[in-house]
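Input/output pair, single chain:
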Amino acid sequence: MTRRELFLGFFKLGALAFGGTGPISRAIIVDDRRWLDDAEFASLLGLCQALPGANTCNLAVMLGDRFCGAAGAAAALAGLLAAPLAFLVAVASLFTTFSTLPDVRAALYGATAAAAGLAIGTALKMTARIPFEPLVVLLAVAAFVGSALLRLPLPLILAVLVPTSFVFARARR
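Output:
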């Protein structure tokens, strides 16, 4: 894999991922480019979510570094950010002008609902191929309850569940 391939793959991801890169990142990285399989993608994405910063930026840096070192990390990150930055500048100038219109506000609410649906769909697709393990399901339910129902801060949830998952994994061996 070359730095050019990394740049173009992540450029495609950045250009197509409206409302977040989660739903399409798996499709591009696993299905389209075949850089990782489902298990590798899920593991790496989980690690990227535990790190500070944007998940997909972390993913771009880690994949770029894995395949082409620091230059690959820079190429992947630049590819990921190029299209969204250009688009953001254009949209920000339009939003400043039209943000008070009721139709614009309604469209933003609809986009938010669509993004939530894409995130749920991606999560279901990712879990469909992972072997069923009761302890993994228990950890997933605990994470859901902690974040969605109890509204606990993510660092607290991770501080509890990451060590717990290591203990479970070690006990299985």
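The chain has two domains: 3-130, 132-173. The helical segments are 3-16, 22-32, 38-50, 55-98, 102-128, 134-149, 154-172.
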